[in-house]
Amino acid sequence: METKILTETISRLMTSPKGILAIDESIPTCNKRFEKIGVVSSEENRRAYRELLVTAPNIEKYISGYILFDETMRQKTLDGKSFVSVLQEKNIDIGIKVDMGTKDFPPHIGDKITDGLVGLVERLQEYKEMGATFAKWRAIYNISNETPSESCMEANAEIFAEYAYECQSAGIVPIVEPEILIDGDHTIEQCFKITTKNLDIIFKKLLEKNIFIPGIILKTSMVISGKEAEVQSKADDVAKMTIKCLTEHVPKEIGGIVFLSGGQGDDEATENLNEMHKYEPLPWPLTFSYGRAIQNKALLSWAKNPSDISASQELLLAAAKINSLARTGEYSKLK
Fold this sequence. Notes:
- The protein has helices at residues 3-13, 27-36, 43-54, 70-73, 83-89, 120-130, 150-169, 188-208, 235-249, 266-276, 292-304, 309-326, and strands at 19-22, 63-68, 93-97, 102-104, 112-114, 132-141, 173-180, 217-220, 256-259, 286-290.
- The protein is α/β, with parallel strands linked by helices.
- It has a single domain, classed as TIM Barrel.
- The strands form two sheets. Strands 1-2-3-6-7-8-9-10 form an eight-stranded parallel barrel, surrounded by seven helices.
- Helix 9 links the parallel strand 8 (217-220) and strand 9 (256-259).
- Helix 8 runs parallel beside helix 9, helix 10 (266-276) packs antiparallel against helix 11 and helix 11 runs antiparallel to helix 12 (309-326).
């Protein structure tokens, strides 16, 4: 294992005040998003929208890495340049989603485990040859009276460890993404309890597999109440409980931690991240890896007027900028 390659990649990805932009929506997810806003679901429309994201001028001021999907990794601009080469010219690292989605985990109704270990070694090698320097694998957990079960958390943790091992063996930084879904009426205290238990299980499995902890990035959901909860979490509570959870249950030597927005409102995700940095100094770099929270306004603008690419790109840049400010605790709604 070339640990130097892993730590150098992480150093670039976690460079302050930047974060990571996730544009790794699967084809079905992307099509659903298009349908909701009246855009025809087609390969060309997916390519055109992603070209807007990839070619945005000056995005590299705020974004250190893009997470792509397999289709996106192979697409090109209208003038024939690969998306990968466009990003590389901006000194943006190339990430790739390598899991194959989730499936039911019987006999636990509501539990899911992530698929995709079969063929992973070969896929990683191909993506590395195409320019990928990091990868992402996501697992999801529903909070209810019955879920997530401990056996589900154990199973996903074992899969995370195998994935991380194969990534590091290939010289690719693994992003480990355990997402506690925001759906439901659970309290912030319930979210804290499940998140801490899950992180303990995951890092136990990673260490048992001899994963090089400074060579991984944790992409985590925030400790927050469910969308249907009677009491909605305020930014200071989210920050306090999330930082407590991470400082007490994530190894201090980890390469970095990034947040997913996970169904939060755009402003909410930014404000919560900003609040985290009032707890500086933190033992690890802490930033964002948002998808919709950065893309939303640009996507809506493009849907209304696909010919005005620059207007959509300006909205993308503005969203990236405010989250860059939040990454250092300098965001305010006045900016």
